[in-house]
Amino acid sequence: MTDLTAAPPAPTATDADPAWIAGHPRIQRVPNRDLTLFIQRGFLDATECAGLIDRIDAKRRPSTIADANGDGYFRTSETCDLDHADPFVAAINARLDAFAGIATSYGEPIQGQRYDVGQEFKAHTDYFDPKGSDYAKYCSMAGNRTWTLMVYLNEPAAGGATRFTKIGKTIHPESGKLLAWNNRDASGAPNPASLHHGMKVRSGVKHVITKWYRERPWG
Predict the structure, then answer these.
(1) Which residues of 177-214 are buried (b: 16+ CB within 10 A; e: fewer)?
(2) For residues 154 and 207, is the Cβ–Cβ distance under 8 A?
(3) What is the pLDDT of residues 107-160, one digit of tens each?
(4) Residues 155 and 174: beta-carbon distance below 8 Å
(5) 28 - beta bridge partners?
(6) How far is CA 217 from CA 70, 102, 107, 115, in A?
(7) Residue 115 and residue 132: Cα distance in Å, rounded?
(8) In this predicted structure, what is the pLDDT of residue 5?
(9) In whole angstroms, what separates CA 19 from the centre of its chain?
């Protein structure tokens, strides 16, 4: 079990360095020229996953989306905005920041998601389209999303994979497994190759946490 009392050094960088992430133990970089995507198994242990699941289940609400393009079933999961005044959550947030190597001020609060049978999040990108009607509303202060860190907290009996549709990569849930990807391309522009689908859960329930980072300090 990880010692949550041993806080990692606070990072100061404003963006993640792929070489820094690649240097972590047990890290796998998905071989693809179009998307920078990493996988690390065992980022969280069973006790940490259970603690987060309990918090998500206690305060979950229907998920929302900035622009579903008229599709009322685009995102059917439930969401929980985790309380960063909770020392347990704050310690995990610090570890995510240390993993990414990004200063805490550039990160959004951790969000939890719960997917029951039949629920999904259809293919989407985490960045906001600069040409979209919602861009100014969501990006005028902190800028667009840069990196995404997502951790599976459990394994549903069937379904619930994350499929990166543009690169043909499907990743199956595994308790404690972390995914990290850059939402931009080599030029710094929003990267359509980051399109991904939180696929339907066929049996059981899926829980994940997601942490997004921004171009400028959040809040």
Answers:
(1) bbbbbbbbeeeeebbebbbbbbbbbeebbbbbbbbbbb
(2) yes
(3) 999 999 999 999 999 999 999 999 988 899 999 999 999 999 999 999 999 999
(4) yes
(5) 39
(6) 31, 11, 7, 30
(7) 27
(8) 47
(9) 20
> For residue range 158-173, what is the model confidence (pLDDT) as tens digits?
999 999 999 999 999 9
Q: Distance between CA 204 and CA 148 in Å, rounded?
A: 25
Amino acid at 91: A
Beta bridge partners of 178: 40, 151
For residue 126 the two structure tokens come to 């985490």
CB neighbours of residue 85 within 10 Å: 7
Q: Cα–Cα distance between 217 and 179 in angstroms, integer?
A: 22
Asked if 54 and 153 touch (Cβ cutoff 8 Å), the reply is no
Question: What does the radius of gyration of the chain's CA atoms come to, in whole angstroms?
Answer: 16
The pair phi, psi for residue 99, each rounded to 5°, is -60, -50
